[in-house]
Each structure stands twice: as structure tokens, then as C-alpha cells.
């Protein structure tokens, strides 16, 4: 029987014990999307991979491909291990949780891998998160969330309304999950969904936020969509973020 070996750059996004001495790894790879592999003997003392199988570190991986579950054969670190702590750690944990819960096995592409890697790089260089830096990081988080939904087939249509007309920056629009934006009268409350300015929708579509209102609306919009697709699952990283923020 021919053994198919695969190679790719990748990041470990989750690991958990498997049987007696092994570890089960969820990995985001550049060339094969999200995969699941067994690292045999990964929990034993003094194994050759001890200290390498860490999250948030770029790895070169070789694994034996099988249906459903692969077997890790070789792994090496491509960069220096960093000490993650504080809000940058919580934000990086948030990326992993979203990827674990929303990205199916075998899905993912180079564009999503690139934005994940880029955002991890920014977080790794952020030693303390001050107010101005936090706002910029949140803008990049919105781009990551948007790209993730696009990758799994739920790209948001934010530049066209329900009647096929172009969204206008100065108009108000009613947003609901799995519906196109609908023009909305000023000062009329919505019982479900959100009401936002067209400028905020266009900013989220472009991934570029010029005002604080656009950033705030983008956060509200993405939270609504993510809660729907997460089926209201509670993320540990969000709970930790609340503790850091003191709320």
C-alpha cells in the first residue's frame, strides 16, 4: 500500500491527550487547510518534539495522510518561540477558537492562512495593549473574522441592498443574518438584527475603517454573525477578555 506523505507550513490551533502517550492536534496549514493529526508519543518525556508542538509558532510539518485522521511524521520550528501573555495572548487564543469551531476539516486556503499568520505577527510584537493599539488590533480582528466567514462560504454581502441597489454611505440599513441589507427609516428601532449606516457596511466590506463609528459598527455586525454561526457557543477567550477589561 502506498503511503501518501504531505508537507506544509502550519500552526497548531489545538491539542489534547489521545490514548495513553499520544496527542491529537488540530492544525491550520497553508496548503491543506485545517487538518487533524496524531502525534504518537507526543506526551512522553524527552521526545524529539517536546517543546516544538506549541501554538502560535510557525512549523514545518510532514504527515501521513489518511481519511479523517493523519499521523504526524516530522515537525520543526520555523521561528523562535515567544512568550505569550496578557491581551495579545487572549486575542491569539480568540483566533484559534474561531478557527477550531467554524472552519471544517479540509477547508481553508492560502489567503486565510496569510491573514492568520499576519495577525499573529502583529500580536507577537505587541507587548502592551494601550487604547490606541487596541483599536487598531480590533480593526485587524474584524478583517480576520470577515475572511473566516468568506472562507467557509458565508461571505457577507454589504455593498448591495435587498432590492439590488448599491449601498449608500449616508443611508441607514437594517441587517439580519442571511438577509441582504434593507433601507431603514431614521430613528426607527429594529426588533431584531442591527441598524447601521451604509458607510459602516462599506468599510467592513473594504476592511478599512476611518471613523470610530465604523469600527464600533463593524464589531457589532461581526458579533451578530459569529454568534449565529457559532450557535451561541461561549468562547473562553471572550470570557478572559472581559476579565482583562474589568467588565
From TrEMBL:
CC terms in the record's Gene Ontology section: bacterial nucleoid
Sequence ranges assigned to domain DNA replication/recombination mediator RecO N-terminal in this UniProt record: 6-77
Query: Which GO biological process annotations does it have?
Result: DNA recombination; double-strand break repair
Source taxon at top rank: Bacteria
Keywords attached to this Swiss-Prot or TrEMBL record, sorted alphabetically, are: DNA damage, DNA recombination, DNA repair
Establish whether keyword DNA repair is in the entry. Answer: yes
Q: What's a Pfam family this protein contains?
A: RecO_N
HAMAP family in the cross-refs: RecO (MF_00201)
Q: Which PANTHER family match?
A: DNA REPAIR PROTEIN RECO
What does this gene product do?
Answer: Involved in DNA repair and RecF pathway recombination.
Q: What is this protein called?
A: DNA repair protein RecO
Species the sequence originates in: Piscirickettsia salmonis
Q: What is the lineage of its organism?
A: Bacteria, Pseudomonadati, Pseudomonadota, Gammaproteobacteria, Thiotrichales
| Gene responsible for this protein | recO
